[in-house]
Specification:
By secondary structure, the chain is an alpha+beta fold. The chain has nine helices and twelve strands. The chain has a single domain, classed as 4-Layer Sandwich (Glutamine Phosphoribosylpyrophosphate, subunit 1, domain 1).
């Protein structure tokens, strides 16, 4: 049995703003990433490899707020964060505030596998990347006209641009269970449009936006990062299963619908249990998501209903 689920962000997804053509593009991007991860699992690859492969595909797609499509900071730059975790060993790696890394998820994996640390930031993370033979890319690599226009709208004081809308969302993530029964999770993001002071969200923080433990589940989150940090969302879901005997579906629903809502936090999670069951819970208007289990047809969705 293997399973994999991916997400491309959650938030206010007005159908009129998305449009039919753009919706097809997003669905195509999700399908490509899901297929990339599934192919790894089908040939007996590890869940970690599948997660990284799927997230790389999303990082390379400028539709999503990660890698190539990262949003701009207040100062007109790009600061990227990512994390991965192996459920069999609880090994984890994360990077935050990097500005010249094409695929932050690959650097996060390198931190996990080849360093004595869990999280590296900024210039230090990029120095480590060079030591591992991971090349740096110029800042211009991340420049897309759509993201630049979004920053201009935020800086102009557009009230709607301050909400968690399509202009902001797109944090990506993946969770997987491989044929050996190992769980893994990974998350990557460009943060929030117009962010200041080297702000870091939940994505690279183990236990907040990313967590995996073979004793319970693997989780990747997306949404209002500050609230996800305060609620330790990813670990809370795992703890409810491991110590509270909750099902994956119940744990995800309770945390997203109750705990997050009580803190006025908007967003969602994807999660996979040790038996291959999948939960994709969100309290926003929509969440870009896709999943597939061994022997079943892929599921791709954006809204609660077609």
């Amino acid at each position: 049995m293997f399973s994999i689920a991916i997400h491309g962000g959650a938030g206010t997804l007005a159908r009129a703003e998305l449009g039919a053509d753009r919706e097809r593009q997003y669905r195509g991007g999700l399908a490509a990433a899901l297929n990339a991860g599934r192919s790894v699992l089908e040939r007996g690859g590890t869940s970690l490899e599948a997660v990284v492969r799927a997230v790389v595909m999303l990082e390379d797609n400028p539709l999503f707020n990660a890698g190539r499509g990262a949003v701009f900071t207040h100062d007109g730059g790009n600061e990227l964060d990512a994390a991965v975790m192996d459920g069999s060993t609880l090994a984890a790696g994360a990077v935050c505030g990097v500005c010249h890394i094409k695929n932050p998820i690959e650097l996060a994996r390198a931190v996990m596998q080849y360093s004595d640390y869990v999280m590296l930031s900024g210039l230090g993370a990029e120095e480590f990347a060079l030591s591992r033979g991971i090349p740096l890319v110029p800042r211009s690599y991340f420049h897309t006209e759509e993201r630049w226009r979004q920053l201009q709208r935020v800086q102009s004081g557009d009230a709607e641009s301050s909400a968690l809308t399509l202009s902001h969302l797109g944090t990506v993530g993946a969770v997987a269970l491989d044929l050996a029964g190992t769980l893994a999770a990974g998350t990557s993001t460009g943060g929030i449009t117009g962010k200041r002071y080297n702000r870091i969200g939940d994505s690279p923080i183990i236990g907040a936006g990313t967590y995996a433990d073979n004793r319970c589940c693997a989780v990747s989150a997306t949404g209002h990062g500050e609230v996800f940090i305060r609620a330790a969302v990813a670990h809370d879901i795992c703890a409810r299963i491991r110590f509270g005997g909750r099902s994956l579906a119940d744990a995800a629903r309770e945390v997203v619908r109750d705990e997050l809502a009580a803190l006025r936090g908007e967003g969602g999670v994807i999660a996979i249990g040790r038996g291959g069951e999948i939960a994709m819970e969100f309290n926003s208007e929509g969440m870009f998501r896709a999943s597939v289990r061994c022997g079943e047809e892929p599921q791709i969705a954006i809204y609660d209903s077609p």
